[in-house]
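The material for today's practical consists of a large collection of protein records. There is nothing in a record beyond a sequence line and a structure line. As an example, a complete record with its sequence and its structure tokens follows:
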Amino acid sequence: MMMSLFLGLVPIVLVGAFAVTAPIVGASAAFVAFGVGTVVSVLTGNARPHSLRSLGSAALVVGSVMFIGAVGADALPLLWIAAVFGGAGLGAVFSGITRGLVPEVAPHERAALFATIYLVAYLSMGLSAIVAGPFVDVVGIGTVAVSFGIVTAVVALVSVFTTTTHTTRRKKAIAPRQAARTQPAR
């Protein structure tokens, strides 16, 4: 949803909320988000998938809140900070998802896995922007942008909670087995 925000709504937000009419500014915001996401993905090659998903989701929450603050306070610099955090979060989450799932499937199943990952990603980007678009004329771009930011933050918070809960349960389930292995045989 974060990329839907930067690809679909930010150009309209820039015009409606910030009176910025240069298309390069909207394109630059998307470039920053995607660029940071790419850099994070490359630099976190040795990180664990669960950690990437948890930290990435947390960064998406921060990016969403910064976006809401940018629109609410008419503070364009916050929009750039939102792009950095949102892009970092997206890069970490996407890397965590792919790095966590790819080893779990057989090599001949990986094409279907990636097709599914990209299908879900593009549907979440496209459908959310399509749903939000008609409301711009009804309630205004500021309200739509803030609402979209809130929904994005809530979804990211749910992701933080579920990823962290899953990791905690997994560690608790593994701990007794590891303890049994380290005890000497009698």
Notes: The chain has a mean pLDDT of 89. The radius of gyration is 19 Å.
